């Protein structure tokens, strides 16, 4: 398996698919089975959410509480890993109507081991203060070339942190930025200075991001865009893409987007294969 940054920089590949919280249509989100399903389907990247237990272990869960995925009202970070491991995840993306499965909440270390040499991981750290802990665990497992970590760059607080993020020990960093008509040029200049391997971009209009495509390319920075329904930009959502893939996924590819994160990875994969993108 190639290095993550080398894979992203490869001009010969088509648009890459990032499965949001794993292939959760097949297994509970953020579970080892969801990562396995994404690997089996041939997706390129899995996004997973990282939290820390009360006794200092990193584990996978998106929400602050266990309500949606395990039917428990407790705040996940206030429980020990042993307590968390006794929980059983609901199927899919959870909720009260979903059945309880046999799948447990996994640790980051378990997720890294499943992914080793098989798929890239986008690590969404829910508490930036945990970055040194996450970096140490990834590096100690020899997985620095297979993951990214990310943080926003368009707030004063974020830029203060970025001035001294600590030693990432070879892990690729992905800034998260929102392009608008008023800030696009300045943001592109900032990214050109940082020269990250990729930027997770949102925008007020697709053109606000697309017009700076060449400047980002000159800096060696690829573009990642989310079409997830709750956070999609300008209506370019998964829901809209299922009805009109050319009007959503096709427009993004034409605008120079290199990676699309989606809750509908199978549909996106079929579209990319059918169109040769």
TrEMBL record:
Origin superkingdom: Bacteria
Domain GP-PDE per the UniProt entry, residue ranges: 15-277
Pfam families: DUF4996, GDPD
Name under which the protein is recorded: Glycerophosphodiester phosphodiesterase family protein
């Amino acid at each position: 398996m190639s290095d993550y940054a080398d894979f992203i920089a490869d001009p010969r590949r088509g648009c890459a698919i990032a499965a949001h919280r794993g292939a959760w249509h097949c297994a509970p989100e953020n579970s080892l089975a969801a990562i396995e399903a994404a690997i089996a389907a041939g997706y390129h990247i899995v996004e997973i959410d990282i939290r820390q237990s009360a006794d200092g272990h990193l584990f996978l869960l998106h929400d602050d509480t266990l309500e949606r995925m395990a039917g428990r009202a407790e705040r996940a970070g206030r429980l020990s890993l042993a307590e968390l491991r006794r929980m059983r995840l609901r199927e899919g993306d959870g909720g009260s109507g979903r059945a309880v499965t046999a799948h447990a909440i996994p640790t980051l270390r378990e997720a890294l081991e499943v992914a080793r040499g098989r798929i890239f991981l986008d690590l969404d750290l829910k508490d930036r203060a945990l970055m040194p802990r996450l970096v140490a665990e990834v590096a100690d497992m020899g997985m620095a070339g297979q993951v990214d970590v990310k943080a926003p760059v368009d707030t004063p607080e974020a830029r203060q942190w970025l001035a001294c993020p600590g030693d990432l020990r070879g892990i690729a960093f992905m800034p998260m930025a929102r392009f608008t008509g008023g800030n696009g040029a300045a943001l592109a200049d900032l990214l050109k200075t940082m020269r990250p391997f990729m930027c997770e971009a949102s925008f007020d209009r697709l053109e606000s991001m697309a017009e700076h495509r060449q400047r980002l390319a000159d800096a060696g920075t690829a573009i990642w865009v989310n079409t997830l329904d709750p956070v999609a930009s300008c209506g370019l959502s998964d829901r809209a893409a299922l009805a009109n893939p050319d009007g959503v996924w096709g427009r993004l590819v034409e605008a120079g987007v290199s990676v699309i994160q989606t809750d509908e990875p199978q549909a996106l994969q079929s579209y990319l294969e059918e169109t040769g993108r």
